[in-house]
Amino acid sequence: RMVTVHGRTRQMFYTGTADWDFIRGVKDAVSIPVIANGDIITIEDAEQALRRSGADGVMIGRAAQGRPWLFREIDHYLRTGTYLAPPSYAEMRSLLLEHLHDHYRLYGDETGVRSARKHIAWYVRSLPGGEALRQHINRLDDCAVQWQAVADYFDNLGAHMERLPQELQEKLIACVAQNTFKNACATT
User: Fold this and answer.
1) pLDDT for 28-49, tens place per residue?
2) Which of 10, 23, 125, 126 could pair covalently with 171 via S-S, beta carbons 3.0-4.6 A apart?
3) What are the pLDDT digits (tens) for 124-133?
């Protein structure tokens, strides 16, 4: 009833560039909806992927890790041609804490606290003090303590500014594009 096409070969893995023009060939060959996937990191990428592929929609993977608001930003832009403001720290806090609650419930305390570390890191990778938080939570073995550390971190950010400044938003996008979560993508 639908097919999703990733614009890279298996041999390419995460290297090279997704071929959205190839996806157009698939779209032209079938009568079912086609979803384009691969290298869709920004709103502009989504728009270009749709235009070049002729696809009926886009699928986003790694670019949404720690950025669940990306979907609404793309949807809003495609419908209106205007950009939404970055999420507030209060919204990011709420999203991540709800995510952690569900994560702990799904995986249990022992596995949940360990596997949540990467999710927390994705959310905070370009935020002020994000690297320090990542290092701190990597030493925690208790879900409640980890959850509280995240809550306190966002409360502190929210006390100093309302939302992610544009330059940090751009840095976050650059980190995702480079597929890197190293210290170079964290601010202190």
Assistant:
1) 999 999 999 999 999 999 999 9
2) 126
3) 988 899 999 9
